[in-house]
Design a protein that fits this description.
With 306 residues, the chain is mainly α. It has one domain. It has ten helices and four strands. It has a two-stranded antiparallel sheet. A two-stranded antiparallel ribbon has the order 3-4. Strand 1 and strand 2 form a beta hairpin. Helix 3 crosses helix 9. The two termini are 23 Å apart. One of its GO terms (cellular component) is plasma membrane. It holds the Pfam family TauE.
């Protein structure tokens, strides 16, 4: 069943898009991560212009983040005060990211920037995840692991503008969560991802937040930064395809339900290793596409066309 995507300006199989949304939703539920960093490359692989894939994925993340936050809110796992400070940085970062996105789009380099960003971030994160998982499996569960302090005080904790965050039991500079939100906002705008695979480790190891509050607080901030990114992308760069976003959202919601059930059967290190291999495979595919000789060396386009 073919449907026409008005912004992407191409026809696609609706069942394929639903399947992609369901597959990434399943993986999100299985591994407990957002699927934005997988969905955008997959859309590029099937012919969706990278700029449209990024803008549309940001739109879809709003719905997914709202669903996640509601679940964490019921468990009282959201630090609204800290999330609000992150949001200030996120709004600034998103605005800067959308401006840079439009600039690269005008220069004709946005596709290259998106692909290089994904190759770098996915390759780095997957490599670190795979190394950590292999070490954990080799060490074995029989050996007792000595408890360690969640974080150590560094020069970062001596920064000014300190604030108290009672819910997270922290007394730190507001510049730290704002800075993390700023980086996350840029990633949302340029890569079409929530940035959770970078925000979550930063919130744990830099801020020293309790692990139970990290996911909910991160999603709370992501709702607003992705919402702003989707609005600005649609208004300024015209890269949000609502038809594509709706198909992905329907498939993602259904797939996540099955993935959550399947995830209970995997051990933590096994899940991380499988996810790392999958993310690395996507990064390698993007890198190969940048290097190999294309089938069509020349193409004719007009301004405004992908």
């Amino acid at each position: 069943m073919q449907v026409y995507l008005p912004i992407a300006e191409l026809s696609v199989n609706a069942l394929l898009i639903l399947g992609l949304g369901g597959g990434v939703g399943f993986l999100s539920g299985l591994f407990g991560v957002g699927g934005g960093f997988l969905m955008t490359p997959l859309l590029i692989f099937i012919g969706v212009p990278p700029a449209v894939a990024v803008g549309t994925q940001a739109n879809q993340l709003v719905g997914a983040s709202v669903s996640g936050v509601l679940a964490h809110w019921r468990r009282n796992n959201v630090d609204v005060r800290l999330g609000g400070v992150m949001l200030v940085g996120g709004v600034l970062g998103t605005g800067l990211g959308v401006w840079l996105f439009g600039l690269f789009q005008q220069l004709g380099h946005i596709d290259l920037v998106i692909s290089l960003s994904y190759v770098f971030f996915l390759g780095t994160v997957s490599g670190l995840m795979l190394w950590e998982s292999i070490r954990t499996m080799l060490r074995g569960r029989a050996k007792a692991v000595a408890p360690r302090k969640l974080h150590h005080h560094t020069w970062l904790h001596g920064l000014p503008f300190k604030m108290r965050f009672p819910r997270s039991r922290l007394y730190i500079s507001a510049l730290l969560p704002a800075g993390i939100g700023f980086v996350g906002g840029i990633l949302v705008a340029i890569m079409g991802i929530g940035g959770g695979f970078l925000l979550v480790p930063a919130m744990i190891y830099i801020l020293g937040m309790p692990t139970g509050l990290v996911a909910g607080t991160s999603l709370f901030q992501i709702i607003f930064s992705t919402g702003m990114a989707a609005f600005l992308q649609a208004a300024t760069n015209q890269t949000v395809d609502i038809v594509l976003a709706m198909l992905l959202l329907v498939g993602g919601v259904i797939g996540a339900q099955f993935g959550t059930r399947a995830g209970a059967r995997l051990r933590g290190e096994q899940a991380r290793a499988l996810l790392a291999l999958m993310v690395m495979a996507v990064a390698v595919k993007l890198a190969v596409d940048l290097i190999v000789r294309p089938e069509d060396l020349f193409s004719i386009t007009r301004p405004g066309m992908p």
